[in-house]
Amino acid sequence: MASTPELGKFQFRNSNTWIDGALNRSTIQVNFRVKSDADSETLKPLSQMSPVYNSLKGSVPIKVSIQTY
């Protein structure tokens, strides 16, 4: 099977905001760029079917954006 890296790209960003003392708030931003005929609203639930997403979603806000081309 041939590799096709042009079908999608993934970018992960984390930001932390200091609140006070040892308290901080983290936010995770995940950006997908996917070659697809489906729109981003159709693909968004698929991006959330991940063990990593499930383990983080309860404790850290996660923002997911999907661009199609």
Q: How would you classify the helix and strand content by structural class?
A: alpha+beta
Cross-sheet strand order for the largest sheet:
1-2-3
Largest sheet: 3 strands, mixed
Taken together, the total number of domains comes to 1
Radius of gyration, taken over Cα atoms and rounded to an integer in Å: 15 Å
How many E strands? Answer: 3
Compact description:
Helix content is 20%, strand content 46%.
Q: What can you tell me about this protein's structure?
A:
With 69 residues, the chain is α+β, with helices and mostly antiparallel strands. The chain has one domain. It has helices at 40-47, 51-56; strands at 8-20, 23-34, 62-68. The chain has a 3-stranded mixed sheet. A hairpin with a 2-residue loop joins strand 1 and strand 2 (23-34). The longest helix is centred in the middle third of the chain and has 8 residues, at 40-47. The two termini are 23 Å apart. The relative contact order is 0.26. The mean pLDDT is 85.
Question: Which helices and strands occur, and which strands form pairs?
Answer:
Elements: E1 8-20, E2 23-34, H1 40-47, H2 51-56, E3 62-68
Parallel strand pairs: 2-3
Antiparallel strand pairs: 1-2
Can you give keywords for this protein?
69 residues, alpha+beta, elongated
